[in-house]
C-alpha cells in the first residue's frame, strides 16, 4: 500500500512559504504605491516652490508700487473690479451655501479617440477642452456680446480687417509658464500647418492673413477680407502653450496620432498633460492651482466616465455614480413618475438656444464613383419618404422639432416661408421614377435600368438606443417604397474612420449650432478634399458663391437675405435630410446648485457657476 508523501510538516512549510510570497507581493505593491505618491508629492512641491517664489516677487513688486502710488504694468490696480467675464461666477460665490469642493461627475456617451487639441473632432472632446483651454474673448451668456478673457482690451481698425489685442499679464499655463503673445501666434501657426490633421479648423481660420506679436503682451490679427463673424474668428481661437506643443509640431504625424496631449491656462488641468489614453475609460481633471482668474473654480475635480450604453448610463445615474443624466424621451416620462429618484434630483426641460440638429447625410461619391444619391431627385425623394413628424412622435414623444436647414428656426438666418417637406409616398415614387428607379419585376423592390435594386447602408452609432430605433423605423418606411435600408451599427472611432475615408452610403449624425451658423465648413465644395467636413461630397457652385458673399458681408441687414438664399438652395438640393432639433431633457443631482438655462444653453462651462454646499459634499481626495 502506497503511503501519502505529504506530511503535516510539509503542509505547514507550504503554508508559511505561501504567506511569505503573499507578503512580498503586498510589500512590493505598497512600495510601488509609495513611490508613486512620493513622485506626485515631489511634483506638487516643486510646483508650489516655484509659485511661492513668483508670489514673493509679486508681493514685493506690489508693495513697492502701492507705496509709490504707481499702477501695475498692465494698467490695472490692486483694487481692480471683477472682470466682466467672471461677474456671474463671482455672483454665485455670494449665494447662500456657496462652498468650494466636491466633484462634478458626468458621463460620455462615446469613447474618445483623442483629447489632443486641434486634431480632436468630436463634441465630447471639445466640451472637456473648454475647462483646460482658454481664448482671448468669451461670450456673455445673456447679452451674447464678447467680453475679454485672456485679452484685457482690444481695438478694431476702421476697415474691420485688423484687430489688436492687449493680453493680461498675470496669466500662466498650468505648469507655471507665462502666457504671452508668442503663444497666440504659435496657436494660429499650428492650426494652419498643412501637416497637422485639422482641415475643418484650418478652413475656419483661413480668412486670417497673419497673426503677429508686436511685443510680449500685444498681438495683431490681420484678415484677408471682411468677414461677418470676424471678432469671433480671432477672439475664440484656443491658446496653446508654445513651450509644451512645439516639440510635437516638429513631428506632425506623431501629433496627429496622439491621444492625450492637453495643457492650457484654464481653471482645470490633467494631472499628467501627456499621459491620458482612451483605454483609461475616464477623463479626470483636477483644479488648476495656478489659475489666474479672480474666482477659484468651485469643484476640486471634474470627471467624465465613458459609458456608451444608454441603459448602463441610467443605471449609473440611479446609483448616484454620475451627477447628470440626459434622458431619452420615454425614460424622461417614466423617470418623472419615480418618486425616489425625483426626491434626490431636479429636472430641466428646455430647447437649447444653440441646439444641435440631427440629419441623414447622403454621400454622393464613394470610392471615386457617383452613388445613387448623386441625383438630387433621389435625395428629395428620401426626404419625402422620411416621416419626421412620426419619428418625433414615436421615438422622441414630441420632445423635438423638425429641422428644415442648418439655421435655427428662430434665427434671422431662417426664412419662415420655408416649411418642412411632408411625408408623401406618391411624390417620392414619382421622383424616383424620373431618376430611373421603379419596380421592374413586380417583386416590390425598386431597380434601376440595369436591374440593380435600390439598397444602401445607413451608418449609425451603435451605443444610442434612440438612433437604433429610428433606423429600424426608417427601414420599414423606406420598404413601403421598395427601398432596402441595411442598418450598419458602428462604434464611434469606426464612424470617424468611415467619415475620413468617405466610405459609406448614408450616415446619421448631428452638427452643433452657434448664434449665427456659418455653413462653409460643412457644405462648401472647398471642404470636400483634404479630409474637410463636407464628407457627403456635395457641390453646388451657386451655393458656394452665396456662402462666400454672406461670409464677407459685415452688414447684418444685407447678410441675412444671402443666408436665406443659401437656405433655399439647400432646401432644393437636400444634401442632408435635416431631421430634428431635440429638447434637452436633463436630470441633475440636487447637490448641484445654481443651474440655469441661458441664451447659450445650460451654464455648465467656465467660469464655473455651479457649486455644492458643504453639507452635501460627497467626494474628497
Radius of gyration over C-alpha positions, nearest whole angstrom: 28 Å
CATH superfamily of the largest domain: Periplasmic binding protein-like II
- In percent terms, what proportion of residues is strand? 15-25%
Number of structurally distinct domains: 2
Mean pLDDT: 89
Shape: globular
Span of the ends, CA to CA:
64 Å
Tell me the CATH topology of the largest domain.
Answer: D-Maltodextrin-Binding Protein, domain 2
Supply the helix-strand structural class. alpha+beta
| Uncertain stretches | 1-5, 56-79
What's the assembly state of these chains? single chain
* β-strand number: 25
Indicate the CATH architecture of the largest domain. Answer: 3-Layer(aba) Sandwich
> How many helices?
19
The main pleated sheet reads as: 6 strands, mixed
Percent of residues in helices comes to 25-40%
What is the level 1 CATH name of the largest domain? Answer: Alpha Beta
Strand order of the largest sheet: 18-22-15-21-19-20
Amino acid at each position: 500500500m502506497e503511503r501519502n508523501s505529504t506530511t503535516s510538516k510539509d503542509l505547514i512549510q507550504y503554508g508559511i512559504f505561501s504567506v511569505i510570497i503573499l507578503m512580498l507581493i503586498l510589500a512590493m505593491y505598497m512600495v510601488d504605491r509609495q513611490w508613486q505618491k512620493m513622485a506626485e508629492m515631489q511634483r506638487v512641491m516643486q510646483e508650489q516652490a516655484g509659485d511661492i517664489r513668483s508670489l514673493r516677487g509679486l508681493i514685493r513688486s506690489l508693495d513697492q508700487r502701492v507705496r509709490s502710488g504707481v499702477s501695475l504694468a498692465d494698467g490695472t490696480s490692486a483694487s481692480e473690479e471683477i472682470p466682466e467675464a467672471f461677474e456671474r461666477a463671482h455672483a454665485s460665490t455670494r449665494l447662500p451655501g456657496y462652498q468650494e469642493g466636491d466633484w462634478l461627475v458626468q458621463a460620455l456617451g462615446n469613447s474618445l479617440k483623442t483629447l489632443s487639441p486641434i486634431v480632436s473632432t468630436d463634441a465630447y472632446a471639445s466640451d472637456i477642452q473648454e475647462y483646460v483651454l482658454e481664448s482671448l474673448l468669451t461670450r456673455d451668456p445673456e447679452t451674447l456680446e464678447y467680453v475679454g478673457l485672456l485679452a484685457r482690451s482690444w481695438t478694431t481698425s476702421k476697415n474691420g480687417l485688423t484687430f489688436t489685442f492687449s493680453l493680461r499679464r498675470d496669466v500662466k499655463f498650468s505648469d507655471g509658464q507665462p502666457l504671452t503673445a508668442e503663444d497666440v501666434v504659435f496657436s494660429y501657426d499650428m492650426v494652419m500647418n498643412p501637416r497637422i490633421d485639422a482641415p475643418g479648423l484650418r478652413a475656419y481660420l483661413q480668412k486670417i492673413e497673419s497673426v503677429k506679436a508686436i511685443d510680449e503682451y500685444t498681438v495683431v490679427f490681420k484678415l484677408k477680407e471682411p468677414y461677418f463673424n470676424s471678432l469671433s474668428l480671432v477672439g475664440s481661437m484656443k491658446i496653446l502653450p508654445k513651450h509644451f506643443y512645439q516639440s510635437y509640431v516638429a513631428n506632425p504625424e506623431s501629433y496627429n496620432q496622439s491621444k492625450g496631449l492637453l495643457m492650457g491656462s484654464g481653471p482645470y488641468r490633467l494631472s499628467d498633460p501627456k499621459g491620458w489614453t482612451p483605454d483609461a475609460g475616464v477623463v479626470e481633471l483636477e483644479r488648476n492651482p495656478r489659475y489666474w482668474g479672480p474666482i477659484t473654480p468651485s469643484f476640486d475635480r471634474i470627471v467624465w466616465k465613458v459609458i456608451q450604453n444608454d441603459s448602463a448610463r441610467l443605471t449609473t445615474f440611479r446609483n448616484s455614480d454620475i451627477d447628470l443624466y440626459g434622458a431619452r424621451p420615454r425614460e424622461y416620462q417614466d423617470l418623472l413618475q419615480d418618486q425616489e429618484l425625483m426626491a434626490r434630483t431636479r429636472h430641466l426641460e428646455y430647447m437649447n438656444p444653440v441646439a444641435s440638429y440631427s440629419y441623414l447625410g447622403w454621400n454622393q461619391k464613394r470610392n471615386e464613383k457617383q452613388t445613387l444619391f448623386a441625383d438630387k431627385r433621389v435625395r428629395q425623394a428620401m426626404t419625402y419618404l422620411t416621416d419626421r413628424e412620426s419619428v418625433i412622435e414615436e421615438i422622441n414623444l414630441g420632445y423635438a422639432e423638425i429641422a428644415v436647414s442648418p439655421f435655427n428656426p428662430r434665427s434671422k438666418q431662417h426664412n419662415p416661408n420655408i416649411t418642412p417637406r411632408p411625408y408623401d409616398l406618391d411624390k417620392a415614387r414619382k421622383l424616383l421614377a424620373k431618376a430611373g428607379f421603379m419596380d421592374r419585376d413586380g417583386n416590390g423592390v425598386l431597380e434601376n435600368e440595369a436591374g440593380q435594386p435600390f439598397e444602401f447602408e445607413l451608418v449609425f452609432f451603435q451605443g444610442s438606443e434612440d438612433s437604433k430605433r429610428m433606423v429600424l423605423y426608417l427601414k420599414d418606411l423606406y420598404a413601403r417604397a421598395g427601398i432596402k435600408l441595411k442598418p450598419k451599427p458602428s462604434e464611434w472611432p469606426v464612424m470617424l474612420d468611415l467619415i475620413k475615408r468617405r466610405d459609406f452610403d448614408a450616415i446619421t449624425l448631428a452638427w452643433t449650432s452657434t448664434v449665427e451658423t456659418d455653413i462653409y465648413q460643412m457644405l462648401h465644395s472647398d471642404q470636400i478634399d483634404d479630409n474637410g467636413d463636407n464628407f457627403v461630397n456635395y457641390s453646388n457652385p451657386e451655393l458656394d458663391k452665396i456662402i462666400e458673399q454672406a461670409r464677407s458681408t459685415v452688414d447684418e441687414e444685407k447678410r441675412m437675405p444671402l443666408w436665406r438664399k443659401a437656405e433655399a438652395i439647400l432646401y432644393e438640393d437636400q444634401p442632408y435630410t435635416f431631421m430634428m432639433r431635440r429638447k434637452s431633457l436633463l436630470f441633475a443631482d440636487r447637490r448641484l446648485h445654481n443651474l440655469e438655462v441661458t441664451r447659450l444653453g445650460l451654464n455648465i462651462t467656465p467660469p464655473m457657476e455651479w457649486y455644492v454646499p458643504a453639507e452635501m459634499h460627497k467626494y474628497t481626495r
